[in-house]
Amino acid sequence: HRLLNQFPFGNMAEDPQLTAALNVMRRMPPSRIENSLAGLIELVPDLTDDLLNNVDQPLKTQKDPTTGREYILCDYNRDGDSYRSPWSNKYFPEVDDGFVPTPALRQMEIDANNVFDTYRKLYFDTGFSSVYFFNTDEKEDESFGACFLIHKDVEAQKGLTEGVWDSIHVFEVSATKAGHFEYKLTTTVMVSMAVNNGKVGDVDLSGSMTKQSQQTLPVTKVQTHIANMGKMLEEMELMIRNSIESVYIQKTREVINGMRASDSAASDAFMKITKSLNAAVLAHGGKRQKDS
Question: Which CATH superfamily is domain 102-291 in?
């Protein structure tokens, strides 16, 4: 199945042409990644599958008509033009032979979706979450993969016209020795904030960050796969959130402070916006630490 070759660990770009294409994508504006990817695919159609597998795009959702709940679309629940809902385990539009997890993985998927939905409510308040489990090796029953997703839109306020947080956590889980499993996690967070008003003009603060971690942990009736993955996921997301606050927002403030502004009112207005964004990130991080 096509999902088996989509893990971020390993050699992503042995082809020089693919390497060059990915380097071009890294230099494109993050807020226009879909248009940039479409243009690149039109230039080199032979790399379509590789580019779609290696370039993270903003997450989208659709509603499960049988349950009425929204779910997130990604390559890990896609089969052709159809996407599987984690709530009903059905594809929409319907397909006859769509990939579905084994009964054991499906039960873990149900449990993980319930837990992760609670995580989303506690730490993000609003938005959507989805979890997908899948087989990775037909010869090894204990190995599997999982993808945890969160999509949150931020309401317009204080000059912020648009704000989006997308986080993608992909696990590759394999048995190492009796009762122990190796967890390889690749996390990508995409953040986009657009500001437009008469004082500061049109400002786009967007970017993405990808980090990896790897741990070997025991699995028991108490310390389950979901518990192990949940702890790694939470630590990784907190690390990235702190990096965004300290690197991107603080760096933006330093750049603005170092610029010679001809309009002091516009500079002051922009500084208020960056301080507001910084306070929001710090407050959210503090809430996570307090809740945990």
Answer: F-actin capping protein, beta subunit (3.90.1150.210)
